[in-house]
Amino acid sequence: MSTLPDTGFTEIVDLIAAARQRAVQTVNATLIDLYWQVGAIISRKIAAAEWGDGVVAQLAEHIARTQPGLRGFTRRNLFRMRQFYEAYRDDEVVSALLRQLPWTHHLIILSQSRRDEERDFYLRTAIREKWSKRELERQFKAALFERAVLSPAKVSPLVTQIHPQALNVFRDVYLVEFLALPEAHSELDLHRGLLHCLKDFLIELGRDFCFVGSEFPLQVGKRDFALDLLFFHRGLNCLVAIELKVGRFEPEYLGKLGFYLEALDRDVKKPHENPAIGVLLCASKDDEVVEYALNRSLSPALIAEYQTQLPDKKLLQAKLHEFYLQNMHEAGEDE
């Protein structure tokens, strides 16, 4: 019996998958629109004192009675729809993005965000990174917003010159708690762990990172060198070299990293790509030492820290509160 070539099957399967994805997106967009409209009606009627909390409970009972089998319209969820509408109604730019996330993501963001800025940060980042529900919850536990505000990425001047958007790509701290490394671990342990949990590490780095190789070979003159990890970033259109250090950052590490970047740009980079960026991923660093080292660096490099445990979120929230109070105080003095 004759069969179609595999390529014929693949084309049809891809079309089916794409159509199903569009259908899911359409259903989600319709659902979000519905919740928005219901939330708007409830918000207006409560604001006008036409309805009280008891009326919303009656509405939930009425829907359950007249629409048997319909889920998601309990009293609690109806109040969530009101909260959803009131959270975003004054920001047309943000409200236009809401359809791009599932309702479960919105519930997580609304329930766990303490500030408007935090809510918008997770909304935009979840859309850009296409986080699953589990990944979104992990980023809240990891206090990503607090860390992004309090500790922006430490980069050399050349990074911002060549790649102005890099500050939105890289982080000051990367969390690798999923490796379950012991407190005393070697660079080999770290290296092997990252390769073994590459999917998780790529999620932590960001969606546009693509893995190129481990111990990537570089030949300069008659000598052979091996770069710990090599990635490519689609948005920045450049290679990203990562060197691992299980101790604290030392200024001399930048010299070796700069050497690797030069070799990548001369021998590996393609003509249409931008110059490579280097990342020194260290167990610890002194920010003042990092600032001095990067200030005169002629390489597009940054120094980041890896942590093997999730941070103390309450401590970071307290520091963030102090940060905002200080900024408000300084803004008041300037007026």
Which regions contain 5 or more consecutive residues with pLDDT less than 50?
none
Strand content: 15-25%
The structure class reads alpha/beta
Biggest β-sheet strands, sense, barrel: 7 strands, mixed
Counted by DSSP, the helix tally is 14
Report Rg. Answer: 25 Å
Order of helices and strands: HHHHHHHHEHEHHEEEHEHEH
Explain how this protein is built.
- This protein is of the alpha/beta class and 335 residues long.
- 55% of the residues lie in helices and 17% in strands.
- The chain is built from 14 helices and seven strands.
- It has helices at residues 6-47, 53-66, 75-88, 92-95, 103-112, 116-129, 133-141, 144-150, 157-162, 187-196, 198-205, 253-267, 287-295, 313-334, and strands at 154-155, 173-175, 209-220, 223-233, 238-248, 274-284, 301-307.
- Strands 1, 2, 3, 4, 5, 6 and 7 form a seven-stranded mixed β-sheet that branches.
- Helix 13 links the parallel strand 6 and strand 7.
- Helix 1 (6-47) crosses helix 3 (75-88) and helix 5 (103-112) runs parallel beside helix 7.
- The longest helix is centred in the N-terminal third of the chain and has 42 residues, at 6-47.
- It starts with 5 loop residues before the first helix and ends with a helix.
- The relative contact order is 0.09.
Task: Detail the topology: elements first, then pairings.
Layout: H1 6-47, H2 53-66, H3 75-88, H4 92-95, H5 103-112, H6 116-129, H7 133-141, H8 144-150, E1 154-155, H9 157-162, E2 173-175, H10 187-196, H11 198-205, E3 209-220, E4 223-233, E5 238-248, H12 253-267, E6 274-284, H13 287-295, E7 301-307, H14 313-334
Helix pairs in contact: 1-3, 5-6, 5-7, 8-14, 10-11
